[in-house]
Amino acid sequence: MSTHMNDTTFKKILDLLYLSTSCSAYWIECIQHIMPVINAKAGMIGGDHMSSGAHLGRIQYGYDTHFVKRLTKDLKLTDLWTKSLLEISPDHCISEQECNLDITQEDTQFFYSVLKSIDVKHTIAVLVKTDNNICIRFAFQRSASQGMYSAKEKECLNYVLPHLKRVVQLAATPSQFTQDMELKLQSLEASERALLIFNKNQTLVRISEGAVPLFEKGLCSFKNNTFILSHFKESIINSAIQNCLKSNILDTLPLDELYPDSKDAPISSISISRMHLSYDIFAVVEIKTSLALKYTGFTQLTATEKIILNHIAHGSTPDYIAHTLHKSPHTIRTHIKNSKMKLNASSAEELVVFGNTIGSQLTNTQVDIV
Length: 370
Hints:
This protein is of the alpha+beta class. It is 44% helix and 13% strand. The strands form three sheets. The chain has a four-stranded antiparallel β-sheet, sandwiched between helices. It has a four-stranded mixed β-sheet with strand order 7-8-10-9. The chain has a two-stranded antiparallel sheet with strand order 1-2.
């Protein structure tokens, strides 16, 4: 079957794969959307250069390696992704029943997949969420001529799969982040912590532009075992990363992905996935465990306490806040004391940070904190 396409069709495909740093990983998902457009017979693309195929739901798809090369070249992807082809077997998928996950339409729309590097060299794990199942998929760095998995790669798969199952099951726990969850995190191995995923209802913090100061103040860490899911526009995350770099907060940066022309960019300790969904960037990052537990206090704050903290963030004194809210200074100080306890805040500066975050939330410039 010929893989020649007209410019209109090719443009539609480029739109689907917009600036994806994981072109091969999203190729299968994109195939699902463009199959009617390219009229691929029997769900297959390609001929002599067909890969071993990929399993998505109940449908078998394949892709032509030359066409993928053309896509990666046109998208100006890094060498890593230009050489990377996705090869998936149903044997390497984790079913919804195994994960014991309750998938809603909201979950599906919010979070199709997350990429995260793990300890095994050159291995990327992809969690794909569809309406009917959840599959763990693997992509290895390879050239088009390498064919099937090597013995070493199969060994890696056998090593990784049990860890992925544990992590997905843990992430599916229907509870808020608690002390109990922290203990569970501590029981995980390093490779498992690197793959931890929270769904929307369990996300500790979803940061948007209003929370960039958290990065600047050094409150985020890439070393410990607690994760937040950051939801940034590309310009925002680039700005946050640059601010972190200036503050010597980050040990390693994904500059090789964000800035392909940087020859000396360090190997990334965090995968930035450019989603074709709404063209936003989703990044899994880690924050200090103590700070993470403080964030759970947000759910315990009353509306009045949130407003007071927002005033504090803007430099207001307790007396001024009391005057503004028509309450006694004693009442305001009691609210502040209660807020500090709920947030486990140890300093006035931390209260200011929390107040800024709440302020962003109150003005609808920040994604909900759960």
